[in-house]
């Protein structure tokens, strides 16, 4: 049987305390630069200065200065007064020797989807949110989330648990301390599983989703760090019944891809 992590909360467990850690301070200018880059990346065909300023609810003059700076260093490109994402973000990953998550091909995901018969998703985190990078699904709910690159909670998905578990302890505590009171029980479940999540890189059926679904996910690792996850998603009852088999399948694929 595959060593796995569950979080059903069964058995008498005492309350666990989260070490107090300050949340990393935000910087208004950095937030705005990040917002500009995300807006442009999502636009696919690019945005004008006016459109970007309007989306940010910011003055055109100050937005222009930030955009000029991003173009100057290659993070944005400008053609006919339309801004698109530049090559610098990709180049940084190349310099770091870190392949893009999309090195997992569509064909590889298709094979996994065909074997499991479930929604299959390649996921990564940006800031404190989870995004589906690629997916295969016959379920319109998950297809909509993936195709529109909508943000999902790290604490409400099996993939998110693995990505969160791989962070520095200080950042884990800061994230958990920022959760609303109605997620206190989920925070406690995550803490009970944290050490095993870090050791195994497998998360099975945490039962924390808000939509009646559940999942099994496996960490995709490079040089010992989790850079993404691959997982399957379905109705909680089906995931629970097939959890061991699904974990074995996911681990096999991740190992074949050289990402374990």
From TrEMBL:
Q: Which domain of life is it from?
A: Bacteria
The segment(s) forming the HTH iclR-type domain are: 27-87
Molecular functions per Gene Ontology: DNA binding; DNA-binding transcription factor activity
Q: Where is this region: Disordered?
A: 1-25
Task: Supply the InterPro entries for this chain.
Answer: GAF-like_dom_sf, HTH_MetabolicPath_Reg, Tscrpt_reg_IclR_C, Tscrpt_reg_IclR_N, WH-like_DNA-bd_sf, WH_DNA-bd_sf
UniProt cross-references to SUPFAM superfamilies, sorted A to Z: GAF domain-like, Winged helix' DNA-binding domain
GO BP, sorted A to Z: negative regulation of DNA-templated transcription
Residue span, IclR-ED domain: 81-260
Task: State what protein this is by name.
Answer: IclR family transcriptional regulator
Do the record's keywords include DNA-binding?
Answer: yes
Per UniProt, which keywords does this protein have?
Answer: DNA-binding, Transcription, Transcription regulation
């Amino acid at each position: 049987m595959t060593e796995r992590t569950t979080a059903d909360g069964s058995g008498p467990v005492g309350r666990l305390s989260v070490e107090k850690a300050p949340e990393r301070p935000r910087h208004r200018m950095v937030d705005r630069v990040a917002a500009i880059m995300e807006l442009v990346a999502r636009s696919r065909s690019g945005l004008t200065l006016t459109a970007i300023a309007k989306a940010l609810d910011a003055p055109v003059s100050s937005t222009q200065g930030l955009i000029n700076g991003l173009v100057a260093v290659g993070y944005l490109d400008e053609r006919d007064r339309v801004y698109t994402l530049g090559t610098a973000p990709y180049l940084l990953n190349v310099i770091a020797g870190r392949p893009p998550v999309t090195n997992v091909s569509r064909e590889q995901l298709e094979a996994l989807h065909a074997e499991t018969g479930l929604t299959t998703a390649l996921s990564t985190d940006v800031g404190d949110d989870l995004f589906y990078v690629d997916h295969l699904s016959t379920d319109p709910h998950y297809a909509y989330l993936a195709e529109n690159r909508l943000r999902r909670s790290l604490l409400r998905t099996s993939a998110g648990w693995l990505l969160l578990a791989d962070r520095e302890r200080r950042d884990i505590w800061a994230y958990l301390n920022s959760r609303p009171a109605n997620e206190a029980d989920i925070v406690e479940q995550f803490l009970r599983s944290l050490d095993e999540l870090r050791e195994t890189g497998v998360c099975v059926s945490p039962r924390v989703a808000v939509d009646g679904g559940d999942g099994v996910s496996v960490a995709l690792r490079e040089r010992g760090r989790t850079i993404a996850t691959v997982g399957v998603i379905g109705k909680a009852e089906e995931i629970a019944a097939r959890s061991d088999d699904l974990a074995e399948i996911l681990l096999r694929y991740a190992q074949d891809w050289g990402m374990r």
